[in-house]
Structures are given as structure tokens and as C-alpha cells.
Specification:
With about 190 residues, this protein is mainly α. The protein has 7 helices and 2 strands. The protein has helices at about 10-30, 35-50, 60-70, 85-95, 125-135, 145-170, 170-175, and strands spanning about 110-115, 140-145. The two termini are about 25 Å apart.
């Protein structure tokens, strides 16, 4: 990636995104699905807070969902049948219990996301997706890890563009970027 024309904020955000997407890819390529999902969902949390109104001090379900609507879902293909609530429920399950289960009394509209590796357009992928929707009256969905990964990668570029626009409109957003963890080599 040519960074010669990047501003300092774009460079800092780019480094964060590269480290997050790189970690996600390494984990996924080595078969660590759960750990890869932790990196993905925690990155989504961080990006949600970066794109939140400046008076917002912490990441919440609302900041996560707003980011998902703004940056993730526009890149979802037809096979990735998720919405912002499904993603929030999946995030809560993975980060809190390392499962696909979440507190359904608090997240009422989300469907439980199950993951498989493979082509979602194949006969098997379509059958898995259809079967999952029959479990518990439609409370489950099956998602190809390859589809969600591709959407995640595409959403990262949208996040940089959105954050740059927000900083241009209100420089107070940049202060939040300085809090993102970065490795300092000595």
C-alpha cells in the first residue's frame, strides 16, 4: 500500500487496520476460527467507537451497530444474510463466552450465527444455510467464514474513508484515534 499521500491520522488508522486484518488472516489461515472472530469483532467495536459522535466515550451496542450499518453491511453479499443485531449478538457470544450464544433476553431480535468454512453458493453451503434457518423457528443463521471475512476486509476501507470525513468535519475525532493501541518498538 502506497502511503506517501496519507495524512498522519490516515497513516495511524491504516497501521491499526493492517495489524487487525493481518492478525485476523493469520489466525484464520491457521484454523483458529474462534480467535480470528475475537479479533474481527473487537476491531468492529473499536471502529464503531472511532466513528461515534465525539461525546460518546465508550463502545456500546449502539456504536457497534451504527458502524455495522454504515461500513459492514453495505459490503455484505446476498449469501451473507446478517443484520446489525445478528452481528451484535455474534460479537457478544464470541467475546463473552467464546460461543455463538448470547443473552437473548437483552438482544431480542438477533439470530444466532453459526459458522462454516466453504463456498456459500455451493449446494452444501445453500443446504446448510437453509437448514440453519429451520432451527428454533428461524433463530439461527449459517454464515460462511470466507463470506464474513471478505465483507470484513472490504468494510475496513470504508471505515478509513468515513473516519477521514469525520475528522475533516470535526478534528475532535482525531483525539480518539490516539488512544488506539499501537506497538512501539524500541
Amino acid at each position: 500500500m502506497d502511503r506517501s499521500n496519507f495524512s498522519d491520522r490516515q497513516l495511524q488508522l491504516s497501521k491499526y487496520i493492517e495489524s487487525s486484518s493481518g492478525s485476523f488472516k493469520i489466525l484464520l489461515d491457521n484454523g483458529y476460527l474462534g480467535q480470528a472472530l475475537i479479533v474481527m469483532y473487537s476491531t468492529m467495536d473499536a471502529l464503531g467507537l472511532l466513528l461515534a459522535p465525539v461525546e460518546q466515550e465508550t463502545a456500546t451496542g449502539a456504536t457497534f451497530k451504527a458502524w455495522a450499518i454504515r461500513c459492514f453491511l453495505p459490503h455484505a453479499n446476498a449469501e451473507l444474510d446478517v443484520n446489525d443485531s445478528d452481528l451484535w449478538g455474534a460479537r457478544c457470544g464470541v467475546l463473552h463466552t467464546f460461543t455463538s450464544e448470547f443473552d437473548s433476553s437483552r438482544i431480542k431480535t438477533a439470530r444466532q450465527v453459526q459458522y462454516f468454512s466453504g463456498d456459500s453458493k455451493s449446494a452444501i453451503g445453500k443446504a446448510l444455510s437453509a437448514a440453519a434457518k429451520e432451527v428454533d423457528g428461524g433463530k439461527h443463521i449459517m454464515v460462511s467464514i470466507e463470506d464474513i471475512a471478505a465483507c470484513f476486509y472490504r468494510s475496513l476501507s470504508s471505515s478509513v474513508e468515513e473516519f477521514t470525513k469525520m475528522c475533516d468535519a470535526n478534528p475532535a475525532h482525531e483525539a480518539r484515534l490516539g488512544k488506539i493501541l499501537q506497538a512501539i518498538r524500541m
